[in-house]
């Protein structure tokens, strides 16, 4: 009888643990389940989704500093071409 009681308590613990995880991680689990459902749906077309805006939009000032336009005078390019690096 003690073994049956222990087994029932263990099963109840597993069920309560599963419910706690489902409640705590509900948003993440829902997104994952939606992604799985979409990937298994043969009628799903990714081109029908609306375009999402990136969370971190690109910083155009930083990109211009790293890749200056040829007609744009850059002080970084002038300094780097004026001072050669010598090997020691």
Automatic annotation (TrEMBL):
Region Disordered, annotated ranges: 38-88
InterPro entries: OEP7-like (IPR038944)
Superkingdom in the source lineage: Eukaryota
Biased composition (Polar residues): 77-88
Annotated protein name in UniProt: Outer envelope membrane protein 7
